[in-house]
């Protein structure tokens, strides 16, 4: 498919999606959301694709937020009626296969929120994260107040939301917001390599592992542990479980069916 606001490439089993409005620092408008929803939907539906990487074009930004120019004159009722922000939860966060955000520069406001929808973030050493919405008279609207708080704890989340200050990559790694920091020049290669490693795993197991970790944010500990056990038990019925355990015992690499 052809998109206006993003680039999509398939590299073997890895889909690379690049936000491509560098002139607006990849600001997120409703057309970007429509493109991303279509691209993530196609990725989920394509059995040849097993992991995705989302990054931003240009060196400066992953995404500098929701598009302020699109929001500036929008009446309040339209924010409610269009419900733009909810589309990210279903159309992007709802992706069932694993995907990584490769954050290459500013990830601010909705850009930080989008990165936090990924299964994990790999950041370049020049990445900067922030929720500066307060300076515009608003607040995070795509999950930032909830996901940032769960990622870095109340103290840093509250400070960032109330002051709008940005957090650099090193601090973000220390605080648990990002999985790893790599030199800017290596970011994309590293993220694609990591994605290829995930894509080489038995796919249904990857999807279930993702679902399990995400459950930790939604349930009590005892309910989460019960759900984990049930999901584990479902995986024991897969062909890849039989293959994986046989391959271990026979000291050879597994050959996966993805089911
Ligand atoms: C629309 C944006 C934009 C945005 C940057 N641009 N961010 N356009 N929406 N969020 C545009 C600029 O207007 C400018 O276009 C071009 O991108 C380059 O940006 P500059 O500001 O000239 O670059 P620089 O001086 O280097 O500053 C970089 C920056 C700054 C610090 C990242 O752009 C900035 O503060 N951006 C806004 C960050 C922000 O507040 N994000 C949160 C948005 S609210 P022109 O045409 O002038 O060259 C949000 C809400 C979420 O995300 C949901 C709840 C409402």
UniProtKB/TrEMBL annotation:
PROSITE patterns: ENOYL_COA_HYDRATASE (PS00166)
CDD domains recorded: crotonase-like
InterPro entries: ClpP/crotonase-like_dom_sf (IPR029045), Enoyl-CoA_hyd/isom_CS (IPR018376), Enoyl-CoA_hydra/iso (IPR001753), Enoyl-CoA_hydra_C (IPR014748)
UniProt keywords, alphabetically: Lyase
Gene3D superfamilies per the UniProt record, alphabetical: 2-enoyl-CoA Hydratase, Chain A, domain 1, Lyase 2-enoyl-coa Hydratase, Chain A, domain 2
Name of the featured protein: Enoyl-CoA hydratase-related protein
Signal peptide from the UniProt entry: none
Highest taxon listed in the record's lineage: Bacteria
Family the entry assigns: Belongs to the enoyl-CoA hydratase/isomerase family.
Pfam families assigned to the protein according to its UniProt record, in alphabetical order: ECH_1
PANTHER family: ENOYL-COA HYDRATASE, MITOCHONDRIAL, ENOYL-COA HYDRATASE-RELATED
């Amino acid at each position: 498919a052809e998109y206006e606001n993003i680039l999509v490439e398939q590299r073997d089993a890895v889909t690379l999606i690049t936000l491509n409005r560098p002139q607006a620092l990849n600001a997120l408008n409703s057309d970007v959301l429509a493109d991303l929803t279509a691209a993530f939907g196609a990725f989920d539906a394509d059995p040849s694709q097993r992991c995705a990487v989302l990054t931003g074009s240009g060196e400066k930004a992953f995404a500098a937020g929701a598009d302020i120019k699109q929001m500036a004159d929008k009446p309040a009722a339209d924010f409610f009626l269009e419900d733009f922000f909810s589309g990210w939860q279903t159309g992007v966060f709802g992706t069932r296969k694993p995907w990584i955000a490769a954050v290459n520069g500013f990830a601010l406001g909705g850009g930080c929120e989008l990165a936090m929808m990924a299964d994990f973030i790999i950041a370049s050493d020049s990445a900067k994260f922030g929720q500066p919405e307060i300076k515009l008279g608003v607040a995070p609207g795509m999950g930032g107040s909830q996901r940032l708080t769960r990622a870095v704890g109340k103290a840093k989340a509250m400070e960032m939301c109330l002051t709008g200050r940005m957090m650099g990559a090193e601090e973000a790694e220390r605080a648990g917001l990002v999985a790893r920091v790599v030199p800017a020049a290596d970011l994309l290669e590293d993220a694609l390599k990591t994605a290829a490693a995930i894509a080489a795993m038995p796919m249904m197991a990857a999807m279930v592992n993702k679902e399990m970790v995400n459950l930790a944010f939604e349930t009590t500990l005892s309910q989460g542990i019960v759900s984990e056990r049930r999901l584990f038990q479902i995986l024991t019925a897969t062909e890849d479980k039989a293959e994986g355990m046989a391959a271990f015992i026979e000291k050879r690499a597994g050959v996966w069916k993805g089911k």
